[in-house]
Amino acid sequence: MQNVIVTGGAGFIGSNFVRYLLGADHQVRIINLDALTYAGSLENLKNLPASERHIFVQGDICDRALVDDLLARYQIDTIVHFAAETHVDRSILGPEQFIRTNVMGTFTLLEAARRYWLDEKANPVAPQEVRFHHISTDEVFGTLQPDDPPFSEITPYAPRSPYAASKAASDHLVRAYGHTYGLPFTITNCTNNYGPYQFPEKLIPLMILNALQGRLLPVYGDGQQIRDWLYVEDHCEAILTVLRHGQVGESYNVGGGNQPTNLTVIHEICDILDELQPNSPYSPHDQLIQYVKDRPGHDRRYAMDITSIQRELDWHPRQSLSSGLARTVQWYLENPSWIDAIHQQQDYQGWLAKNYGDRETTSNQS
What we know:
This protein is of the alpha/beta class. The protein has helices at 12-24, 64-73, 88-93, 96-118, 162-181, 203-212, 232-245, 262-276, 307-313, 321-334, 336-343, 346-356; strands at residues 3-7, 29-34, 54-58, 78-81, 131-137, 185-190, 192-194, 217-220, 229-231, 251-254, 289-292.
């Protein structure tokens, strides 16, 4: 692994991976391809370690000519594919962009990699020295009942939202290119990520930033939806472990090893803020909790069996939910300039108004 394209490398997980990889591998050169849509920001790429080994390219993964050029110009041997539309609520409001980016974008990358790596006339490196790594999600597996076993790598796909369906389609495309054309690939299906630089449309940063501003903390339904939460740096370490030691053609589930309800997570965030900001006029922060109408088709429970990656690759999450949340809240408190830059984005404010502005409130349970 010498010349790596990271797609979506200005987004939340992508930028954290760029930062992590530059610090962990002192030889690698990263070509960071990002369209800089609402969730990607150059703010996420400030103060990178070894920035001389990082080249940023603003562009669309659906632009085949651009992808072809980057592969050849930089003699790319590894593609780490983060670029995706990822928010379920946005996929419900506008599914077309999810199909374009997540399905057609992945297809474009696969076709370009197939031509460059597997065409003898074009390929400067041996096929066994290249890798297409695809980052996916636990949501492709659907939902779990309270007593169901966790998702494993062989759980049948059963996506229930446009977002999940688009990611399931991209997973199938990656596997098809591996089995049909011999394209070397690996896939990781991860649980809900959280940590620094996360765009505040997702639960944890939304709750932190709303609480800091004294805004209501909207809780979907009864707040008893169960998720497995993964600290983003643990995820980055898992991806690098799979790239270095994972078996080509395999998928690995990556999770944080916890199953709290959404309401539990929100209360813990409030408790951390109460401790760190005891003189806040909004303390106790859980007084800001407001229950709102649930979103359509909301999956009730996700849980991941991470036995395979633990046993085969000796990867384990380093952060518990409590320690990871504490680190995350502290980061947002220490980075007000990043928050200000995000809040100034018209798309973010417009999306908040569109998604939550007319959402019916329900009884204020606690």
